[in-house]
């Protein structure tokens, strides 16, 4: 199995997917330190600066999830023509409520870079627009491709959908559902 990128936004089941892929014995890389360990909104070359660190980690593992992997997906799609891509999704209103519950006023440079605002409270329209645009662009890019899987953990997608896509036998039992209800 080659490289797998999870290109879903935070609060769409990425932690659940990471747990499931850990359980399937994949090496899972979560967030990567970039540019000295920080993203900077003042850096117009953020993607280019992130690339060397990301490429070093790609050599060492086979699943990449959360930041910055999800935001550099177009680079990965071109650079790794055999890589597979998993878009984790959830209902937009549920996603928004989860962002408010989990992040509220806790801002980060990463969220400023992604959404234009460091924290979601007071910026619902901007966050929702990025959510819709990101998912639409990923779906359009991979429409009909065997390299692509859309997974909605919150709606019940689990082992039966994931395992065939990642060339693993379908597991029985409960699919991980992490951070459910703010836990």
Would you mind describing this structure in some detail?
Helix 2 (about 45-60) links the parallel strand 2 (about 30) and strand 3 (about 65). Strands 2-3-1-4-5 form a five-stranded parallel β-sheet, with helices on both faces. The chain is globular, with a radius of gyration of 16 Å. The chain contains seven helices and five strands, in the order βαβαβαβαααβα. The model is unreliable at about 35-40 (pLDDT under 50). By secondary structure, it is of the alpha/beta class.
Summarize the structure.
By secondary structure, the chain is α/β, with parallel strands linked by helices. 42% of the residues lie in helices and 9% in strands.
Keywords:
183 residues, five-stranded parallel β-sheet, 7 helices
Q: What sequence of helices (H) and strands (E) makes up the elements?
A: EHEHEHEHHHEH
- Put simply, the count of helices is 7
Spatial order of strands in the largest sheet: 2-3-1-4-5
* Mean of residue pLDDT values: 85
Largest sheet: 5 strands, parallel
Helix proportion range: 40-55%
Coarse shape = globular
CA-based gyration radius? 16 Å
Strand composition percent: 5-15%
- Please tally the β strands and state the result: 5
Which structural class should the secondary elements be placed in?
A: alpha/beta
Distance between the termini: 32 Å
Poorly predicted runs of 5 or more residues: 34-38
